[in-house]
Amino acid sequence: MVSVTITKLLLDKQDKRIVERLFQSGAIQVLIASKDTAWSLPVASYMVIIMGVQFYEGKEHRYIDYPVMDVLQM
Q1: Model's pTM, two decimal places?
Q2: Distance CA 26, CA 35 (A)
Q3: pLDDT tens-place string over residues 22-73
Q4: Where are the domains of the chain?
Q5: Residues 40-68 as b or e (16 or more Cβ within 10 Å = b)
Q6: Which SUPFAM superfamilies does the UniProt record give (predicted)?
C-alpha cells in the first residue's frame, strides 16, 4: 500500500512539521506539493517529478519558463 499526501499553501508550521516527519519516516511515500510548498519543505527524495515548469507573465501575456536554478531548488 502506498501512502500519498497532497500539501497546500495553507498548512501551518505544525502541520508542515508533521508532514516532514511522516515523509522522512516512510509513513508517507508520495508527497505532492505546489511550487511554493516545495520551496518550504526541507525533505530529500531519491526521485522528483516536476510538472508545470512555466508561469504566466501577465504583462507580456505569455508563459515563461522558471529559471533552472529555481527548478533545481524545488
Answers
A1: 0.60
A2: 22
A3: 888 888 888 887 777 777 777 788 887 777 788 889 998 999 988 888 877 7
A4: 4-73
A5: ebeeeeeeeeeeeeeeeeeeeeeeeebee
A6: P-loop containing nucleoside triphosphate hydrolases
